[in-house]
């Protein structure tokens, strides 16, 4: 089936026309002609197709009508050009009035259709007959809102106010703020963990911990000290490690974890991605009560899938997880049995960020989360808990890097310029076909596994590169943060048994294809990700309205930290809405028999006051992403978390093989706190659907 096009009715289209359609208007010489361009996500293993610099990658389908025929070799050719005509990309010659381009990565562009004397030519010569502008061209400058320099200087003090609140530092690239906002504070009290950093033991780096079948690990969450940008701060750590110990388990094993809560917050441990028994899922309010400070809980972990997982709290993650409670879990099995032949080492890298002021972290909200709209985006980026991550490697060494994103809200776009990267696997298993990649785009909750080969001696930085709208201009700007560095030595690594090449896994491909076929005849549901606002300050709402003429597919960077800080989970209601029944969040009442298949469409409403990308996560099951914006996915893999940019939709095929009550939610910590979670029931044979209302609040809602 052909992917949907602009001009089709919205219901059939699966994406927002304002963001993905571009009308073509005729030049004076071509009166009567018309056309349109459908913008489609380029093929990509990631939730957003983008370049290593974070520029979205699109495929353009250009259609034109009403153009007089030209005699060959003359013909009509479509081009994408940058606003200042500094770059142009030939999209192709129109045949029967249409052409589909290869991937195009331009932040802002015009589309031109020209009448060329020779349609095979590679340079644009002919006169334009149709033209249009990319939706991103409507980007508005924030210059009108600039604060006078004095107010700005005052606003730049990031020490605690009498209220106890510290204002988040402005982004260095965003020297403007809507006037009147500088006096505002979130409508909750500030909260910081008690104690002095100096009196706490410094957290250690994560240690690899192998668990054999039947083993029980004691996992203690307790305060510790961490040093960020040279500042000692109070953190929470698992077993004195930040992030916590990397647990290694063999596929199919059953192991136990006794969690002991020595923090000041009610806790629980969620085993993200594991298809285990629901009573051990750690979903506070749904499958267990929060473990009070001083309490403990015994978890039974089953690991049917080989893959890369992680664990974290599931009550007030916006604070507890942000303070350092996050760690990785690797399940080894048949799918990576070839690893010793293919890689020298296997490392788990947990990406995170922290929002730091001059006197330590910006406080969290006591009664409810702050940053409820945007999520709390930190200004210090960390790898395995440190802002100075270092790795020593040998020349030619191949290192398996398992990335997980534990940030509250930040989508990372990491790369290792100078290393070759082979994409091997994602959340719950490998790709059927591996790919060379030059970056990894990873949303909160997701995992991607790449094998990096360090070819030449020298320093290879690990960078986060993004391209974001510049708040003070109409243009875009590249922002690069260096997360760490790999020092590649002169000494060569011993040769590996297998060459550094791409593998294919036909058995995995067959299993994916078999699973995807079950989409026909599966139960169908559609969720809309949307937003309701109750009482936000008027000035803030006005400033936000200016911002929504066009929206970034992903807001990579927190360029407006003050505005992002103010809204709390009390004022903001993020919504998962069943499009058929209108039921929302906690009142969703889906139940399916075990073994059923669910075709789930998740669409992200672009017509809200704060459209943004949401990482959608389902507990205890696995799914395939079959299509994005109606375009069938090129490479399938089992996942539990997928990024859904605004105005787009994803089509998921969900396996419902694991009975129990399972939460699904947006993985932005502040969005769960703002209501963005629901649950589904997978019924055991003979079991009946539970009655509603069922209390699975996360405390406070
Ligand atoms: Cu990692 Cu409910 O999530
Ligand atoms: Cu969200």
Count of separate DSSP helical elements? 9
Shape: globular
Secondary structure: number of strands: 43
Q: Specify the structural class.
A: mainly beta
Uncertain residue ranges: 140-156, 694-701
Average of the residue pLDDT scores: 91
> Which bin fits the share of residues in helices?
under 10%
- Give the end-to-end Cα distance, rounded to a whole number of Å: 43 Å
Strand content: 35-45%
Ligands and ions found? CU-O-CU linkage, copper (II) ion
Compute the gyration radius: what is it?
Answer: 25 Å
**Main beta sheet, described?**
8 strands, antiparallel
How is the largest sheet built, in terms of strand order? 5-4-7-8-1-2-3-6
Task: Give the topology, please.
Layout (H helix, E strand, L loop, with lengths): L9 H4 L3 H4 E6 L7 E8 L16 E8 L9 E7 L6 E6 L4 E7 L5 E7 L10 E7 L15 H7 L34 E2 L16 E4 L4 E13 L2 E8 L7 E5 L3 E8 L8 E3 L23 E7 L4 E6 L4 H4 L6 E6 L6 H4 L2 E10 L1 E2 L2 E2 L2 E2 L14 E4 L5 E7 L1 E9 L6 E4 L3 E8 L2 E9 L2 E3 L4 E8 L3 E12 L6 E17 L13 H12 L5 E11 L4 H9 L14 H5 L6 E7 L11 E4 L2 E9 L9 E5 L3 E7 L2 E2 L8 E4 L4 E8 L3 E7 L2 H5 L3 E7 L18
Parallel strand pairs: 10-13, 11-14, 13-18, 19-25, 24-32, 33-36, 35-43
Antiparallel strand pairs: 1-2, 1-8, 2-3, 3-6, 4-5, 4-7, 7-8, 9-22, 11-12, 14-16, 15-17, 17-18, 19-23, 20-21, 25-30, 26-29, 26-31, 27-28, 27-30, 31-32, 33-34, 36-41, 37-40, 37-42, 38-39, 38-41, 42-43
The protein binds CU-O-CU linkage and copper (II) ion.
How would you explain this protein's 3D organization?
- Helices cover 8% and strands 41% of the residues.
- The protein is mostly beta strands and 701 residues long.
- The chain has a domain at 10-138.
């Amino acid at each position: 089936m052909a992917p949907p096009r602009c001009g089709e009715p919205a219901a059939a289209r699966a994406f927002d026309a304002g963001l993905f359609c571009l009308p073509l208007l005729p030049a004076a010489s071509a009166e009567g002609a018309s056309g349109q361009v459908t913008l489609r996500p380029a093929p990509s293993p990631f939730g957003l197709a983008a370049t290593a610099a974070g520029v979205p990658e699109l495929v353009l389908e250009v259609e034109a009508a009403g153009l007089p025929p030209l005699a060959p070799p003359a013909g009509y050719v479509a081009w994408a050009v940058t606003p200042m005509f500094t770059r142009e990309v030939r999209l192709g010659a129109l045949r029967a009035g249409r052409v589909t381009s290869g991937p195009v990565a331009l932040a802002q562009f015009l589309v031109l259709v020209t009448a060329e004397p020779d349609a095979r030519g590679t340079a644009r010569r002919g006169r334009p007959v149709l033209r249009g502008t990319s939706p991103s061209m409507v980007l508005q400058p924030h210059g009108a809102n600039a604060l006078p320099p004095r107010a700005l200087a005052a606003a730049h003090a990031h020490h605690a106010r009498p209220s106890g609140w510290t204002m988040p530092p402005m982004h260095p690239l965003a020297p403007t703020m809507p006037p009147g906002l500088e006096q505002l504070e979130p409508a909750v009290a500030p909260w910081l963990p008690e104690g002095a950093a100096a009196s706490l033991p410094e957290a250690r780096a994560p240690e690899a911990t192998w668990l054999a079948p039947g083993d029980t690990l004691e996992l203690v969450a307790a305060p510790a000290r961490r040093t960020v940008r040279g500042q000692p701060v109070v953190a929470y750590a698992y077993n004195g490690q930040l992030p916590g110990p990397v647990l290694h388990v063999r596929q199919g094993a059953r192991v136990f974890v006794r969690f002991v809560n020595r923090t000041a917050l009610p806790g629980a441990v969620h085993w993200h991605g594991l298809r285990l028994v629901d009573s051990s899922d750690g979903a506070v309010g749904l499958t267990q009560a929060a473990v009070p400070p001083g309490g403990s809980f015994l978890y039974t972990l089953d690991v049917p899938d080989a893959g890369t997982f992680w664990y974290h709290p599931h009550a007030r993650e916006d604070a507890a997880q942000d303070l350092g409670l996050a760690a990785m879990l690797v399940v080894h099995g048949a799918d990576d049995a070839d690893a010793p032949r293919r890689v020298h080492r296997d490392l788990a890298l947990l990406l995170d960020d922290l929002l730091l002021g001059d006197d330590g972290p910006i406080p969290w909200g006591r009664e409810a989360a702050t940053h409820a709209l945007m999520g709390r985006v930190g200004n210090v980026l960390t790898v395995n808990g440190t802002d100075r991550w270092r790795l020593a490697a040998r020349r030619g060494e191949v290192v398996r890097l398992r990335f997980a994103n534990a940030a509250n809200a930040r989508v990372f776009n990491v790369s290792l310029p100078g290393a070759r990267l082979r994409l091997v696997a994602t959340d719950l298993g490998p790709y059927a076909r591996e790919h060379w990649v030059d970056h990894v785009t990873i949303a909160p909750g997701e995992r991607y596994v790449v094998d990096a080969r360090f070819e030449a001696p020298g320093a290879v930085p690990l960078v986060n590169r993004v391209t974001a709208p510049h708040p003070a201009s109409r243009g875009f700007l590249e922002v690069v943060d260096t997360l760490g560095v790999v020092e590649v030595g002169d000494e060569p690594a011993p040769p590996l048994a297998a060459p550094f090449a791409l593998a294919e896994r036909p058995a995995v491909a067959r299993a994916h294809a078999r699973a995807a076929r079950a989409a026909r005849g599966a139960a169908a549901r559609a969720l809309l990700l949307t937003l309701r606002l109750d009482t936000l300050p008027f000035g803030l709402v006005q400033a936000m309205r200016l911002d929504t003429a066009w929206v970034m597919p992903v807001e990579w960077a927190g360029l407006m930290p003050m505005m992002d800080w103010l809204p709390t989970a009390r004022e903001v209601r993020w919504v998962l809405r069943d499009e058929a029944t209108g039921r929302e969040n906690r009142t969703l009442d889906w139940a399916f028999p075990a073994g059923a298949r669910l075709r789930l469409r998740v669409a992200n409403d672009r017509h809200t006051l704060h459209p943004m990308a949401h990482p959608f996560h389902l507990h205890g099951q696995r799914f395939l992403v079959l299509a994005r914006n109606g375009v069938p996915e090129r490479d399938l893999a089992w996942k539990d978390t997928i990024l859904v940019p605004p105005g787009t939709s994803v089509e998921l095929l969900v396996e419902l093989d694991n009975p129990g009550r399972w939460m699904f939610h947006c993985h932005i910590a502040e969005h769960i706190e703002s209501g963005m979670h629901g649950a589904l029931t997978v019924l055991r044979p003979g079991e009946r659907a539970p009655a509603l209302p069922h209390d699975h609040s996360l405390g406070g809602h």
